[in-house]
Amino acid sequence: MIGLIPVTAVWNFKSRKGCCVFRYKAVSGLFLVGYLLGPAPLLPAADRPQWGQRHTRNMISEETNLPASFDTASGENIKWVIPLGSSTYSTPVIAGGKVFIGTNNDPPRDPRHKGDRGVLLCLNEADGSLAWQLLVPKLEGDVYLDWPKAGICSPPTVEDQRVYVVSNRAEVLCLDMHGLHNGNDGPYQDEARHMTPEKTEPLELTELDADILWVFDMRSGAGMYPHDSAHSSILLDGDFLYLNTGNGVDNTHRCIRAPDAPSLIVLDKNTGRLLARDDEQIGPRIYHAAWSSPALGEVQGRKMVFLGGADGICYAFAPLDNAARIDQVQNLQRLWHFDCDPNAPKENVHQYLDNRRESPSTISAMPVFHQGRLYVVAGGDIWWGKPRSWLKCIDAAPTADITRTEALWSYEIPHHCCSTPAIYENMVFIADCDGVVHCIDALTGQPLWTHKTSGEIWASPLAADDKLYIGNRRRELSIFAAAREKNLIFSCKMDSEITSTPVAANGVLYLAIAEKLYALCNSAKSH
Q1: Angle subtended at Cα 175 by Cα 165 and Cα 232, rounded to the nearest 5 degrees
Q2: How high is the mean pLDDT of the chain?
Q3: For 503-512, what is each residue's pLDDT tens digit?
Q4: Each residue of 80-101: pLDDT tens digit?
Q5: What separation in angstroms does the CA of 520 have from each of 72, 109, 254, 510?
Q6: Cα–Cα distance between 102 and 136 in angstroms, integer?
Q7: Separation CA 226–CA 251 (nearest Å)
Q8: ω into 107 cis (within 30 of 0)
């Protein structure tokens, strides 16, 4: 049972010699508590610099000696815990001795920044103390452009002292991992204006603010129209950043304002320049928004970029040539596509709004590449569509026929699903919006076991150290044996909902709930 930790962590703000300084300290009180492609960047061996396994997006980790239980009352197996905002949808990323996580500004960590903001926190991995934070004002006007209190929902991607993240304003930002501690590097120099709402005087920069290196605004630069919250996990391949745009419906949910906008774009990681985009005309077929992030794999010596389309179709593209000079925006070459729900409506899709019997399918989770196969979840939109989805296993090999019509196998899920699968020891683990965890044979698609949890699951599972970690929106964290027979090892109630995927790095399990971030490890005890 969840208890009370007899200490709490709070952010203290202090001004020193004109500079704003945060201190993280304990005070007395009560506090509720697969294929790897190419040479990897020089990172500590067990870092987790992006959401999911590098390139493939598989929700697994090679970490061992991870906790099978913890106790918030005694602090057993809790290394540290810190407050976040009031809503956290981002998954933590760990790299270079730092932990990065998106949240909101409720409550403010810096009293100069009052009101709703998107926030990316950079924390010190050792103790969770604040290194710096990125603050991004909300898009003004229509709340459906930038949903209140949602914060920054996109998990960042880190490489070579650079942090790439999509903000709540649908901007792609390149940040210095060290923030302004080592000066304001360029070419971007207007951080003070960027972190301050329009018609408000820019605030003075401090060492606790983010250092922005470049900005690409997808609204003006790619012509997209955001909906609800920007959500994209950036895929890195050489000098290129691949990401979904989040193009979506307007506030009526019946109109695509930017039907010609791409769903997938490619940027130069050094400059933020737009290099390529898809030309699949997905826009008119988007039922809600393009929220599925891309994956990458190699089959028969050929690399491919995979995109789960908001139209329920999975696409494979040829990646850009890292050795080629690109002077103008290119259209990505489609290698093949697979319709995950060929019987679903494809035209005039918004006439089916809120139709729970018949509706288009969409793909919200990331496709996962593993041993020449692609695993992807498609089905009805969780807010407006039919309560039905499928886990499809697709042969990813390139062929002369660009249209795939048959999956290797298909597993039907009688509910909505927005979870990215974890493929581990020839098993696939997936969770649905009815709160059911599924274990399926990865080779045949045959069901092995299911388990009904207490509430809706939006998060993805993590398979690591022969365990499976998953949380739900009714505050329940479950730990199973990652095995072909069901074995629930541990379950507990947290004090706020869980929509973030657990992450393992450097011997620590990171669990983000709506209002706090826990660092868990065996034999630790909070103090």
Answers
A1: 5
A2: 91
A3: 999 999 999 9
A4: 999 999 999 999 999 999 999 9
A5: 10, 24, 44, 6
A6: 11
A7: 10
A8: yes
